[in-house]
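Journal club prep — side note

Before the paper discussion, L.F. wants everyone to see what a predicted structure for a comparable chain looks like in token form. Sequence:
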Amino acid sequence: MADLLEAIEIETAASPTCSIIWMHGLGADGHDFVDIVPELGLPAWPGVRFVFPHAPMRPVTINGGYVMRAWYDIRDDGGTRREDPAGVRASQKSIEALIEREKERGVAARSIVLAGFSQGGAMALQTALRYGERLAGIMALSCSLPLADTLGAEASPANRDVPIFMAHGTHDPMIPMARAMRAREILSGLGYRLEWHEYPMPHSVCLEEVRDIRAWLGSVLPQG
């Protein structure tokens, strides 16, 4: 398979039967959430393969055109941040290729979670909701919903009932709570079932959130 994103991989057991593809935020890289694996304390069975891909390097308009790892460009449109649709869709294809690789390695689509933080969470929603096979779940942390106006037409019937874990910090200066709430409203309006959490934190992850993620993963990943 050509042009697969480079990624860090961690397996909790030999021959994992579940996979979590976890996308980082703007300007970070795949190392960003590696340390969360031991904190999650997942059981040894079933084994889980964590895949932490590195986003491509690209100039980011809101950061003065500075080149950094980003899933898509973001522009300031009269004070409103807008994602670059072409960049979003290109990254969607790259993440879909990672899903296909997991399937080739013997992990069923129903045993794959797409997860991400900030821009990575936006990509988890973008990709999973349009993916043609039922996935295990979507974890969208501290993010908004990209290309929301096209989701109704592009949504895959296979993932209409996929479990979605959404979490946001009440003091987030990067992605205001209102944007996350708007994403929740759109998803709920389209009939998706959401587990919503908010925490008294900025644009970050907290211990209580990690505990809630652990519980949610236990509910969506196949048990052996």
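L.F.'s comment for the group: The chain has six helices and eleven strands. Keep this in mind when we get to the figures.
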